[in-house]
Amino acid sequence: MPKNMIVAQSGGPSPVINNTLRGIVETARQMSEIGTVYGGWHGIEGVLKEELMDLSAQCPEEIALLRTTPAAGSVGTCRYKLKEKQNEDFDRIMEIFKAHDIGYFCYIGGNDSMHTAHTVAEIARKRGLDVVGIGGPKTIDNDVGDSEFKLVDHTPGYGSTARYWAHYVQQANEENNGSCPADPVLVMQAMGRKIGYIPAAARLADPNRELPLQIYLAERKTSLEQIHSNVNETLKKHGRCMVVVSEGLDVGDIGIRKDSFGHAQFSASQITVAQIITNYLNEKGLAVKGSARCNVPGTDQRHSMAYASTVDLEEAYYVGQKAALLAGAGEHGYMATILRTDWNNYQVKYDKAPLAEVAEKDRKFPDKWISKDGMDVTDDFLKYARPLIGDDWISVPMINGRMRFAKLKPIFADQKLPKYVPQADRAK
């Protein structure tokens, strides 16, 4: 008899995360080993609360529309961390698995999510439940995997956010070039916490290095004084300067808030890195007349379907398909991955990596891809990232001038267990 599957999402969303979900659901529907596919409503929290959306019962046309539905509104996401001592939470998940005949648990997310997938499935197996744990990679930060790119070349979500920044800087340049007599300096802040893959993507806007563009990654320590000096040197040469900085660049205390995973939430901080740099530049003075200004894009970096990469979108689907195939084959303890097979003529294959080797491990931006002066990235990075942003615009269905997103019906599995409040939420 086929066993049922729970698929859930965790962490920050991406423009293409729903296409990974679609890949799992559509593939699982064709597999005799997998019965009903349930979606954990808002991630592992929904599993704990026994809020399981029946994805198998959804209209196939709506599932297909997940392809161009951004973010995670379809089944929701969460930032709930399962910690070692939360034994009641783990007991509850096992009860849910038993009550709903779950044989497959697939978690889509970053390295913390891979840890959840690994931990939950391992505990289930130790308790005699035949549950296959599988991970589906998702992170715009591109920090899941190994620094040698042998386990994971890149993660779905990154290519689209990289494309966003390539276009964002191009458009910002047009304004900066036009308004530089009054506003010669524009400081832009990119997401990525302390991982530099997103701000590095700004260089894709100017691969021939023709613009007065400086890029500062959190991995390469610098000072406000040095940034001020660098900006003024560029102003003397070009009369204007654009600066892209990591949101996690160390410029002193900015009142950081943290989520339940312990990750900094820079967009919720008291003041931004970009604002501190802008204030410093204006206080110390510029080499030309005018003022420095700053732009801090928000979560549109990770939910803008208009800027999604066609390459990223396609790969997200096949990663989901691979995750479902691994599950159906009983390949417990793996994350579906993308591996590059040809660097000169971009080609990839879909493979697997042990969850234990990617769980809670942050891949860093390679130091060799940062320029010696610390203000740019190298051509090797451009060779790595350029294929990921694609060449074409995606086509999004439109009705009455509005984007047509998937509309899943609130069809949930019958609740068979008593109500439950997740352990970490009880003190709130």
UniProtKB/TrEMBL annotation:
Q: Which residues bind diphosphate?
A: 12
Q: Which Gene3D superfamilies does this UniProt record tie to the protein?
A: 3.40.50.450, Phosphofructokinase domain
Q: What pathway is it annotated to?
A: Carbohydrate degradation; glycolysis; D-glyceraldehyde 3-phosphate and glycerone phosphate from D-glucose: step 3/4
Q: Which UniProt keywords apply?
A: Cytoplasm, Glycolysis, Kinase, Magnesium, Metal-binding, Transferase
Q: InterPro entries this protein is in?
A: ATP_PFK, PFKA, Phosphofructokinase_dom, PKF_sf, PPi-PFK
Asked if the keyword Cell wall biogenesis/degradation belongs to this entry, the reply reads no
Task: Write the Enzyme Commission number(s) for this entry.
Answer: 2.7.1.90
Question: PANTHER family given for it?
Answer: ATP-DEPENDENT 6-PHOSPHOFRUCTOKINASE 1
Q: What's this protein's function?
A: Catalyzes the phosphorylation of D-fructose 6-phosphate, the first committing step of glycolysis. Uses inorganic phosphate (PPi) as phosphoryl donor instead of ATP like common ATP-dependent phosphofructokinases (ATP-PFKs), which renders the reaction reversible, and can thus function both in glycolysis and gluconeogenesis. Consistently, PPi-PFK can replace the enzymes of both the forward (ATP-PFK) and reverse (fructose-bisphosphatase (FBPase)) reactions.
The name under which this protein is listed is Pyrophosphate--fructose 6-phosphate 1-phosphotransferase
Q: What organism is this sequence from?
A: Caulifigura coniformis
Tell me the name of the encoding gene. Answer: pfkA1
